[in-house]
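One such given next:
>
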Amino acid sequence: MSDFLTVGESARVLDRPQWQVRNVVDSMPEQIPRAGRYRLIARSLLTDVAAELARRYPRKVGAIDED
């Protein structure tokens, strides 16, 4: 198992749209490494990403996420 996830993999783990994960990751103070076009998000940062997603994009009860 890799120590890094792409934005798409992170979005699946966090059950969020890729655009939300990408916006959060791009604004983080940590330097996010890249492999070509792909951002490589450390698994250790997923809790921080999840917390920021919840702050920026709170889920509404009964709402459907737009992808």
